[in-house]
Write a structure and sequence with these properties.
- This protein folds into three domains: about 160 residues, MgtE N-terminal domain-like (MgtE N-terminal fold, Alpha Horseshoe), CATH 1.25.60; about 120 residues, CBS-domain, CATH 3.10.580.10; about 170 residues, Tetracycline Repressor, domain 2, CATH 1.10.357.
- A hairpin with a 5-residue loop joins β4 and β5.
- α1 packs antiparallel against α3 and α21 packs antiparallel against α22.
- The termini are far apart.
- The chain has about 475 residues and is mainly alpha-helical.
- The strands form two sheets. It has a three-stranded mixed β-sheet with strand order 1-2-3.
- The chain is built from 22 helices and five strands.
- It is globular.
């Protein structure tokens, strides 16, 4: 096994890999050119020279990759263009393929899997735990899944079927089956003897699950209690009955919130009869929170899914077109609003300079409101009664902001144009548009949730469209009424 290098930043490792790839291309190009300019035996030996140069650089690259953590290799693969990514992927040792496939993003995983044949995929995944195989299963070809089922033991096949039966965003979709269960009618000494017989403890084991003869959860025994108490004490005297547990069909968001609220490291997952069937661990929950957060940011910007930054142009276009099309329609609506007031703008040119301010401030305020509402919905903090109070609060904030910032903008407009009615219209338009932004900032995500849609999807696009068109209409409408 390769020696592990001194710790370094993943950016430094990426730069080293990039430099090696560039050097390999330069050396091979020079060697090939020299070979073309020579004749006779030297020219005949050129393929051998090219092969030696390639092997030397490949060996150095592989040594660098072998010394890196799978997560760091995944980061490097995500940061490389497709051709170089596949070149590096070919140098990763086969026994590490499965670990790295788990670490890379979904979009990049698709490119790596597409470069592997059926046998390579089976070899890469059959060494993983059943819950990890379930994570990869949606991206694997059906024939690979069939081969995997044949290679697993009866118990592992049943676990894999169970893991695949749960939705991705459920507790069952996140749980793993590696856990340590003990009985409460035994002593600490018996438990310690049992643990010594194990090859290793599952990762993030901070407690043992205490069960009865039928496997029903009776409580947990924290490891710290196990270590500081006398060997002859029975587990029943130390067991903690106040257990945070989950059922496999629960929403993963609720479980993530519980892990954050109670500072959990691991927690049991039980079926409808209370029998322990798996566990949740903090590393999986943190990954889920990160992925959910990234997904919400993408959806808020109108992107349908995570995008490989080096994906083919057509794939990227398809990912971005939907909400761009919506944005284009709303832009035409905004332009027609302005068109209705062309006569007013011709008579008072200052309107053209000031109207983007009203729309821009409204859009910013609306996005702030939507961000707060979407976050509260994700955490389950909004009910019918609290929604009414939240609506009143946001309207109040918008009114105060409108008066304060509208007054400031109105003052600036007076300094620039020495026109008191224009300043008052500016202040009134700012206040009204902020009220519209607050109203839509609350209603858009709540309405999408009521329609059982993701409240984050396209929210920023929609609020910007409303505040742009609304801001232009309010400002130019008031100006037409009171100034023209």
């Amino acid at each position: 096994m390769a020696d592990v290098e001194e710790p370094r930043s993943v950016q430094e490792s990426l730069q080293e890999i990039t430099d090696l790839l560039r050097r390999q291309r330069v050396v091979e190009t020079l060697a090939h050119r020299e070979g073309e300019g020579r004749s006779g035996s030297l020219h005949e030996r050129q393929p051998l020279v090219d092969s030696l140069v390639h092997k030397q650089n490949a060996a150095e690259l592989q040594a660098k990759l072998d010394a890196l953590h799978p997560a760091d290799v995944a980061f490097i693969l995500e940061a490389l263009p497709l051709a170089e990514r596949l070149q590096v992927w070919q140098l990763v040792k086969a026994e590490r393929d499965g670990e790295i496939l788990l670490e890379v993003s979904d979009a990049v995983r698709e490119t790596l899997i597409a470069d592997m044949d059926r046998g390579e995929l089976v070899a890469a995944t059959e060494q993983l735990d059943t819950d990890e195989i379930a994570d990869l299963a949606p991206d694997l070809p059906d024939e690979v899944i069939a081969d995997l089922f044949k290679s697993l033991s009866a118990e592992e096949r049943e676990q894999l079927r169970e893991a695949l039966s749960y939705p991705e965003d459920s507790v069952g979709g996140l749980m793993d089956f590696e856990m340590v269960t003990i009985r409460e009618d035994v002593t600490i000494e018996v438990v310690l003897r049992y643990l010594r017989r194990l090859d290793d403890l599952p990762l993030n084991t901070d407690k043992l699950f205490v069960v009865d003869r039928k496997g029903v959860l009776r409580g947990v025994l924290p490891l710290k209690k196990l270590l500081v108490n006398e060997p002859e004490i029975e587990v029943s005297g130390l067991v903690d009955r106040n257990v945070v547990s989950f059922q496999p069909d629960e929403d993963a968001r609720d479980a993530a919130a519980a892990f954050e609220r109670y500072d959990l490291i691991s927690a049991p997952v039980v079926d409808e009869h209370g029998e322990v069937i798996g566990r949740l661990t903090v590393d999986v929950v943190v990954d889920y929170i990160r992925e959910a957060s990234e997904s919400e940011r993408l959806k808020a910007s109108g992107l349908r899914e995570e995008e490989d930054i080096f994906a083919p142009v057509w794939d990227s276009l398809k990912n971005r077109w939907t909400w761009l099309a919506v944005n284009l329609v709303t832009a035409f609506v905004a332009s027609r609003v302005i068109g209705v007031f062309e006569g007013s703008i011709e008579k008072l040119v200052a309107l053209a300079a000031l109207m983007p301010i009203v729309a821009g401030i409204g859009g910013n305020a609306g996005n702030q409101t939507i961000t707060m509402i979407v976050r509260a919905l994700a955490l389950g903090q909004i009910g019918m009664e609290s929604a009414r109070k939240l609506f009143a609060k946001e309207i109040t904030i918008a009114l105060i902001n409108g008066v304060v910032w509208g007054g400031i903008v109105g003052l600036v407009a007076w300094v620039l144009y020495r026109n008191v009615p224009l300043s008052l219209v500016m202040m009134a338009a700012m206040t009204l548009n902020l009220l519209v932004a607050a109203l839509c900032g609350v209603l858009i995500p709540l309405t999408r949730r009521w329609l059982q849609k993701d409240p984050a999807v396209g929210s920023s696009v929609m609020i910007t469209a409303v505040t742009d068109s609304g801001g232009f209409f309010i400002f130019l409408g008031l100006a037409t009424l009171f100034l023209i």
